[in-house]
Amino acid sequence: MKISLFQGILFGVFGVAALVGIFVFATHTGSNAGSKNPTDVGTVVIWGTLPKVAMQNALTTITQSDTSLKAVSYVQKNQDTLPSDLASAIATGNAPDLILASQEELHSLAKLITPIPFATLPASTFTTTFVEGGKIFATPDGTGYYGIPFLVDPLVLFSNRAILSSNGIAKPPATWEALTGLVPNLSILTPTKQITRGLIALGTYDNVHDARGILSSLFLQTGVPLSSYANGSLVANLSGVASSGTLPGQAVLSFYTQFADPSKVSYTWNASLPDSQQAFLAGDLALYLGYASEVRFLSAANPNLDFAVTPLPQPATASTKTAYGLLYAFMIPRGAQNASGAYQAAALLTGSAAQATAATATGLAPATVNQLAAAPADPIAAVAYAEALYTKGWLSPAPADTDAVFSGMITSVISGRLAPGTALTSSENSLSSLLQK
Description:
By secondary structure, the protein is α+β, with helices and mostly antiparallel strands. Helices cover about 40% and strands about 15% of the residues. Strands 1, 2, 3, 6, 11, 12, 13, 14 and 15 form a 9-stranded mixed beta sheet that branches. Helix 3 (about 50-65) runs antiparallel to helix 15. The longest helix has 16 residues, at about 400-415.
């Protein structure tokens, strides 16, 4: 029998609130490899944006050790349509039991999610269990969490070993300043400024494969939060003023766009070139910025490409490290048919053994601190694990809307139509309008 949306919300809230202590038990006691929970969580349907094959493989392996999860299933959903799909499902009484999505969808999903109160998931437990970036899932009113962090997909630096070694470069750059200094040595330009080989894809937007994440990283590394709450409302914050009186947002925009400016020594990329991921696969880029999850795709797409994976470059003067990444969390939607089972399933899936299995299956890093304490033997996974500890995100409009604003901002600067400061202000206003919807 179908229940109404109102009944579903009530059942979800009461079901979650009744589970005080389950999370602590699942993440600390029930996380040992080979342990079995005698309580079946029941049928739990997860809608998520991670690839179905990887998640299904993880669930299959995890279920072999914990049969209480045997009725948990996964359905892959399109990132762009997930909020509307979920709203429709809730309205018709067919909501899934869990949502697995990153912070990039959180703002669009928040009104459809039943928050987990502190009585069920204490703030002290959350803080000591999960990576720092996971706090983005805290509710703005400070009474609970929208989700339980699961996996982290940080931005990393991919390097073409052959190009670097052929030019006497022993290791990839660790700072943005060092990276910029490599442009004259590694970029190959014709006398007419045509780019035959680029150092890295920066400066434009639409043909930079992970431009949204790259720009977000640069802003966050310089202390620009991108969005923040003001008088109870979420607004964009791209400019900001540093304690020194400088404007870090403008500095970020000037730094980024210099790589597409033919008059600069750092010129190494332009809008006429192909997608940066494809350029790297073809051997036409020395460096490529992408997510850790792209390792498997790159290896399969070009088995002959010899590349290294190292942490995202940092500002040379930074006292702490910051990287942008996708922080995936389990969220309980309003109208969930099995809210209590959904919470228990999420708690069990964020236990240490399940985290290790899921990380291996997906190519991402765990979101729990204890699982990140020991570096894995795989050197590529070790980079993702280390970065997960300082990966951050921001509450943004829907990804497609953010891309439209960022693309317009970058294009207006590199075309000379707007100065960086004016472009920032315009983009900040546009993002704030989107965040108010």
